[in-house]
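can u pls check wat happens w/ citrulline
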Amino acid sequence: MTLTGIECWSESAQLECVAVCRPAALEVATEMEASAVGFIGAVSRQDAEDASGRLCEALTRFGCRLFDLGDFLPESARAVSDASVNRVFVRDTAAVVGRQLVTGTAAFAARIAEFDATHAALAELIHGGPRDAAPVEGTGAGLEFGDVFLLDEERIFVNLGLRSDARALQGFLETAWAAGFQEVGVVCIPEHLGIIHLDLAFNVLGPRAVLARTFLKHLPVRVITPAQAPQWESFEGYFTRRGRKVLALPASEAPCFLSNYIFLGPQLLLASQSAAPRLQPLVKELGIEVEGVDIAALERGNGSVRCLTLPLKRRATYA
Ligand SMILES: NC(=O)NCCC[C@H](N)C(=O)O
């Protein structure tokens, strides 16, 4: 079976098809193992599987067609993938940008082989076998898609920090222009903050607002277009000039998963059960509803709902 018609132009249009990946066969048994793979703490296989089941159930209940990449792994990639506890965090590995699948390159050594395995599964799902999507690596530079947001049909917002770097951005810009986007805004989260991806500090709230941790207002945005010289804008100015209000994410102890949600439809987002009650009052004024799902066991991997889902198809318009 192959999937036809992949297409994504925003973060919040109706989510029609989404990829996830079932947890690996290995568990993370000790604090040292957790540290080796970028987890916050140990997690048993059973707890991870139960949480993954609840996530899949919630996505299906809200009408998404679900593809578990574990079902599409070619034989040659299966053993490595089964031993990769981070494989549940499919978001970082690739993205559908316009009508194109763009693959990333892991900057964290523990994830390099897992990215390759997941790319092989995506190729199987989308092309029915190996085929280069639009790899943006080339220079060995990192690009992980927890750092990339499709703001709308024209704009993409990217973080260069712990996991994504400027060399990879060059290749990504060419891909973005070829896909039809006209502007890429770039922010650089300082590495010493230890925030591995932008989606742990930021997310969109539909077409008229974004949610951002307050430190982001201090970081300038480099605005890049295909034809003009890059410009600097302030963080808040960048968004307000483009018709989006910046809502401050309430202070929260690390790890902070409040921003790590996914839009299921223009007025509905799915967050973890612990984040949902804190998000609901924030987004009420925008007419957005929040659904919660108990994935605390998977959050021990240092990611939440956005990291665990890879949108393959969103309805092209908000209508
Ligand atoms: N977008 C995300 O923030 N993804 C979470 C990835 C967590 C994983 N343990 C990692 O270190 O890459």
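The longest strand covers residues 15-20.
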